[in-house]
Every structure is written in structure tokens, then in C-alpha cells.
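Work Package 3 (structural annotation) set out to generate three-dimensional models for the target panel prioritized at the project kickoff. During this period the team completed the workflow that converts sequence records into C-alpha cells, so that structures can be stored uniformly alongside our sequence database. As a representative example, we reproduce one entry of 140 residues exactly as it appears in the project archive.
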Amino acid sequence: MRQDVIRAMKAGERDVASALRLLVSELQRDEKEGNGDELAVLRREHKRRLEAATQFERANRPELAQREAAEAVMIARYLPPELTDAQLQELVATAIAETGAKGPPDLGPVMRAVMDRAGGLVDGKRASAAARSALAGMSG
């Protein structure tokens, strides 16, 4: 990522270089705090940019929304691809079988199993929706 900062600076892409510097700073801070989970930092920063873009859109500030959305796209390039819907459904089915879940009240253990096995490759909201849907189809 540091090489990308240098490339952006040489290319005169100030906004890109600035965003990348901020990202590098967040990664270093996370490492100093002893967490060292780069994927978690990248996902958090990606989510922050998307949320900021939405807020700026609502506030009728399209230029700021566009900048935040562009930063989110840039950060997404450093993230591994998320699980497909089919992979997520398979993971949920496996978690339900492993936990012995019988219905919606068993969402907690199923979600823990899904998120542990997903290894950061799926958004929690998306996983929760898939688990809720699968559990809702069961008789509790």
C-alpha cells in the first residue's frame, strides 16, 4: 500500500495519496494497539466511506459524497472478494447443522459459527439476513 501512496504522489493524484496515507495510518494504529487485523481495518474504513457517502447524499452534498464513494472503491481494491450468495448459503446450512439449530431463537450460535468460518469474507448484515432467512423456514 505504501508503494501505491508513492505512485499516487508521483502521478499527482493528491486525493488518492491522501486517502491511502490515512489508510496506512489506520493500519499502523491498529497494529500498535495489538490488534493487527488488517482485513478488519480495511473493512471498517470501507464501511465508513460508504456510510459517509450516504450521509453526504442525504445532505445534498454530491461532491463530498462522490469523493467518499471513490475512496470506498479504492479501499475495496485491497479487500478480498466476499463470499457468493451460494457460498454463504452453504456456510449457513453447515452452521445450522453443526449447532443443531431448530429455528429463529438459535440465531446467535449460528451467526457465531458462520462468522468464524467466513474468515472476514462476508459482511455481518448479509450473513445475518441469510441466517435469519434459513432459520425462519424451520419449525421452532
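The chain has a mean pLDDT of 91.
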